[in-house]
Design brief:
369 residues; 14 helices; alpha/beta; single chain; 7-stranded parallel beta sheet; Rossmann fold; globular; 2 domains
């Protein structure tokens, strides 16, 4: 049965949750549903991924830093309530966590009877007794009370949100989808020439925002240790507030001439095509989209055993090496071992196929029944 569906994310800036929702909006629209992508600010690289079959509603609220500010947030809440009251959707999906709270409130204020599916993409520790944790539990309770089902992108995230008060029978574990294959990129980029200029040796790549949770400092230290054994090159795709600090760290370690900070690249195919090995050094990962993207391209992977996605994706190490979080020595050893004996591309590609958009679309559509 054709449903009227809304996917809500605050903006379409680069980010895992935003990309997932654009992909799932496209997929459900392809299946014949009436789908609206609802955002408070429609600017950002993920906007280009939206299918013409998906209707876009953009409130055009300016972003201030990493958010909207209190007055704009209150205004956005009321405008969202009005939107749901007018559209009368059958189902609403939301992410990330703050958007889940806003959506729960907006649906209530708009007297909407829509099914509500908040989506949780980040790992979180079991709450303590401090004030902030108590507030988090309270807010989780408000979202859980309105939710039809709460989507967790990994089993570990599902355990986290259950520990924070979401009833276990309301938790649905649905992994993130692999973006549709776009083939090897034919375009050329400046970073490709810069990477070639770093010299010889295999290319190690990572991708993600340059923020603390990605722990690029441990990756840089591990790469410095690897360089003592063999020539290699490291490219970091992504940008963020720690870029200057990380560039300085690479110089301090004496590896600056072998490390490229390529910035944000909205062409994943080109990034993976350049890599001989993909490395994820995060301290926390709700899922780890970049791992399945690399695997789909046949690129072997090494990851920290960050809670929770990497271990689930790599099946306890069957499809790639897992090392302790923050352990540069172990990471260097795993990178060297994987370069010497890489996982077979066919095995990697087969595992990545488990996360195909069509399979994940089946799970999303099943929630509507």
């Amino acid at each position: 049965m054709r449903k009227r569906i809304v996917f809500h994310v605050p903006s379409l800036r680069g980010g895992g949750a935003e990309r997932v929702f654009v992909l799932m909006a496209n997929e459900l629209a392809r299946r014949g549903h009436e789908v609206t992508l609802f955002t408070w600010n429609g600017e950002g690289p993920n906007a280009a991924l939206r299918s013409d079959a998906v209707h876009l509603v953009d409130l055009g609220i300016p972003i201030r830093g990493d958010g909207f500010g209190k007055p704009a947030t209150i205004g956005g809440l009321w405008r969202s309530a009005g939107f749901y009251r007018r559209l009368k959707p059958d189902a609403v999906f939301s992410a990330p966590e703050f958007a889940n709270l806003i959506t729960a409130l907006a649906l209530t204020l708009g007297f909407s009877k829509a099914q509500f599916f908040p989506s949780f993409h980040a790992a979180a520790s079991i709450p303590s007794d401090d004030f902030g944790s108590k507030v988090a539990v309270l807010l989780s309770g408000l979202v859980a009370g309105r939710a039809s089902k709460a989507i967790a992108v990994s089993a570990g995230v599902g355990r986290d949100i259950a520990a924070r008060g979401v009833p276990a029978d309301k938790v649905a574990v649905i992994n993130n989808p692999l973006p549709p294959a776009m083939g090897r990129a034919s375009a050329t980029y400046r970073w490709q020439a810069e990477l070639a200029g770093l010299g010889d040796g295999p290319v190690l790549a990572t991708a993600g925002r340059l923020v603390g949770v990605k722990d690029h400092k441990t990756l840089l230290r591990a790469f410095a240790a690897l360089l003592k054994q063999r020539p290699a090159r490291l490219v970091l795709f992504g940008d963020g507030p720690l870029r200057g600090e990380l560039e300085a760290e690479s110089r301090i370690l004496g590896i600056g001439s072998r490390v490229l900070f390529a910035g944000y690249v909205n062409d994943p195919a080109a990034c993976y095509a350049a890599a001989d090995l993909f490395v994820l050094s995060s301290t926390s990962e709700g899922f780890g989209n970049v791992l399945i993207e690399a695997m789909a391209a046949g690129v072997p992977v090494v990851s920290t055993d960050a809670p929770h996605g990497p271990r689930e994706i790599l099946a306890d190490g069957k499809y790639g090496a897992l090392v302790p979080v923050g352990d540069a020595e172990a990471l260097a050893a795993a990178m060297a071992a994987m370069l010497d004996a890489p996982t077979a591309a066919a095995l990697l590609e087969g595992r990545a196929a488990d996360f195909a958009v069509e399979r994940i679309g089946d799970a999303y559509e099943a929630l509507l029944r």
